[in-house]
Amino acid sequence: MLVLRSGLTRALAARKLAPQVCSSFATGPRQYDGTFYEFRTYCLKPSKMNEFLENVKKNIHLRTVHSELVGYWSVEFGGQMNKVFHIWKYDNFAHRTEVRKAVAKDKEWQQSVVPNLALIDEQETEITYLVPWSKLEKPAKEGVYELVIFQMKPGGPALWGDAFKRAVNAHVDLGYSKLVGVFHTEYGALNRVHVLWWNENADSRAAGRHQSHEDPRVVAAVRESVNYLVSQQNTLLIPTSFSPLK
């Protein structure tokens, strides 16, 4: 019994002495707000983009009755061609379940999507949360959007969150681009972060990127976050005429 008690005492002491990893990017604050964002990506058949978007434009009001559409874009540059990307907002998972049930019972909406089903080759969905230090911003005027996807090393935000935050804020604070939101994937590829930026046009985005790469403050912040980076990919998004985010 004394040996057991002694071993337990040592184990508890070691546990108290173990370093605690903390991060402002930790998921704790998120848990008090169940709001999440569903990212949907559809890969369309070649030459069918215009037909698909016209069908959506005519009928999207039937779908937005059930839940909030944040934005709807076509992919201009980066990755696979003939692709659309859209973001939907939900209060929590129960809300999404209710919405999906209502959508399934909405005969008018179901009939409206039939023509588009034959135009889609692939569909992908991800569930994401805004990181605790980011909120969804709406640009004041129309422009183009850049979605940058960062695949980070395993270990989670407690490992790389602070460095990543500093890298993003370096661009924001110095005015090189306008941040729309930073999202962390909950369902999909883990340790993935999506950063959505707005620029007035593709040329202003190119100019801002060139200037930021010559700014030692940005370079220093980015260099630190690169230590935790596995890969990254960016796409230029053009908002559709019916997208809430223009």
From TrEMBL:
Origin superkingdom: Eukaryota
Pfam families reported for this sequence: NIPSNAP (PF07978)
UniProt xrefs under InterPro entries: Dimeric_a/b-barrel (IPR011008), NIPSNAP (IPR012577), NipSnap_domain (IPR051557)
Domain NIPSNAP residue range list: 37-135, 145-244
GO cellular component, one term: mitochondrion
BP-aspect Gene Ontology terms: mitophagy
Entry similarity comment: Belongs to the NipSnap family.
Protein name: Protein NipSnap homolog 3A-like isoform X1
Organism per entry: Leptonychotes weddellii (Weddell seal)
